[in-house]
Amino acid sequence: MSETNQQQRKRRRKENTTGIAKILDSEADEKQVKTKGLNEILTSLVLLEEQEKDDHDELEKANQEEKLRFDEHHNKKTRAMVEYYSKLQDFHKDAEIAEGTRKRKAKANTFAAVNIASMAIGAVKQDDSVSNDKNDAVSDKATAGPQRRLWVKNRSKDWWDQCNSPDFPDDEFKKAFRMGKNTFELICNELSSVVSKENTMLRDAVPVRQRVAVCIWRLATGEPLRLVSKKFGLGISTCHKLVLEVCSAIRNVLMPKYLRWPDEDTLGKIKDEFESMSGIPNVVGSMYTTHIPIIAPKISVSAYFNRRHTERNQKTSYSITVQGVVDPRGVFTDVCIGYPGSMPDDQVLEKSTLFQRANAGFYNGVWIIGGSGYPLMDWVLVPYTQQHLTWTQHAFNEKIGEVERVAKDSFARLKGRWGCLQKRTEVKLQDLPVVLGACCVLHNICELNNEDLDPELKFELFDDEMVPEIGLRSGNAMKARDAIAHNLLHHNHAGTSFVS
């Protein structure tokens, strides 16, 4: 019995031991599972961290590549503009050299012709020395009219002779030349010493009045040279040469006198006139940029392509720009001529001498007012362009618009008065800045002499303004504009038309 009990105890002990072992094994397995799960979680976290790091590295790499592409594109554009400018300068130099060579050849040919004529006269004298009477007759015939008629083609000058007559009506003269006789006489007197030529043995020189008239009529009407030739009884090439010579004389002689930045006393009067007009103090000018159509150039065609005019007119358009600052009378005080038509207004401004003088502190404490195509700077005051304007901002835009219209109306009169600016011209690209500068000077002379523009010549401008990419260039200018807008409304200087 005792042995049986002892065996039973051994069996139970063995079973208990086996149970405990199973429990221990189960706990070990469970611990192993938990450990394995924890390891998997840690591994997942490490993998996620590595994945996030890889994504961050790829993003940094993409950003770096994009920055490199942007810098490369910017450098490419900069090189292209520098190369274009260099080619343009070289082109102008080559044109000047070619023109000088042509003049020298023409002069040499003239001298050769004179020598030949002199030799012929001498031979005639020697052959006819037997008879003094015959000798005198041959000499007179050789040195007078017939020699000139060999070089000059007879053309009718009836139209010009009629215009040049003292009895010709002043209103008809003004209709033809966009200015009265007195103003025309003033220009002729100013240019006489520069454009006058002496008679030669071969031909008579074109008189000063006729030279100036050819140029002004060509600029005023924009008619082709063949019609200019018929009107004035001159050759086509002669008319072309006269136009360029007189335009160059206007630029060299009249521009320093009639198109210049005002002195201090005049600036004070300009500020007062603009302030009485708009209520905005310290305004010294109104600025605007227009486009002049041109024939597609042979070089840098894309630079002169005018996309906005092309889209509006449904016709491929190329142009160059003319930026101008005017006083309250619409007289130009600064112009920048000749940059390609693809450039927006703010880039043209940055390239101008006006901008360089501003950076040198020349316009500290004063404003030049421009449209929405210009950026707001310490010296350039422009309207608000954001949506949902306040009453104060609306009122400011209304008053600043009155000053803007002074420049826009002046450019409209410029193009209306000089018809050559309204259509593509025969003038070569390198000569256009001289011609356009002459038009601006002649515009100033007409404005200063109160030459009213015929209402039939009224011209409507179509120059789209593009808001610049960086419209705000100065925080101080923004605060100053807000203060001006507040003062306009507070002191009842602002209008109320924006309410209706």
Automatic annotation (TrEMBL):
<keyword id="KW-0175">Coiled coil</keyword>
<dbReference type="GO" id="GO:0005634">
    <property type="term" value="C:nucleus"/>
</dbReference>
<dbReference type="GO" id="GO:0016787">
    <property type="term" value="F:hydrolase activity"/>
</dbReference>
<keyword id="KW-0378">Hydrolase</keyword>
<feature type="coiled-coil region">
    <location>
        <begin position="45"/>
        <end position="76"/>
    </location>
</feature>
<comment type="similarity">
    <text>Belongs to the HARBI1 family.</text>
</comment>
<dbReference type="InterPro" id="IPR027806">
    <property type="entry name" value="HARBI1_dom"/>
</dbReference>
<dbReference type="GO" id="GO:0004518">
    <property type="term" value="F:nuclease activity"/>
</dbReference>
<dbReference type="InterPro" id="IPR045249">
    <property type="entry name" value="HARBI1-like"/>
</dbReference>
<dbReference type="Pfam" id="PF13359">
    <property type="entry name" value="DDE_Tnp_4"/>
</dbReference>
<feature type="domain" description="DDE Tnp4">
    <location>
        <begin position="288"/>
        <end position="444"/>
    </location>
</feature>
<protein>
    <recommendedName>
        <fullName>DDE Tnp4 domain-containing protein</fullName>
    </recommendedName>
</protein>
<feature type="region of interest" description="Disordered">
    <location>
        <begin position="1"/>
        <end position="20"/>
    </location>
</feature>
<dbReference type="GO" id="GO:0046872">
    <property type="term" value="F:metal ion binding"/>
</dbReference>
<keyword id="KW-0479">Metal-binding</keyword>
<keyword id="KW-0539">Nucleus</keyword>
<keyword id="KW-0540">Nuclease</keyword>
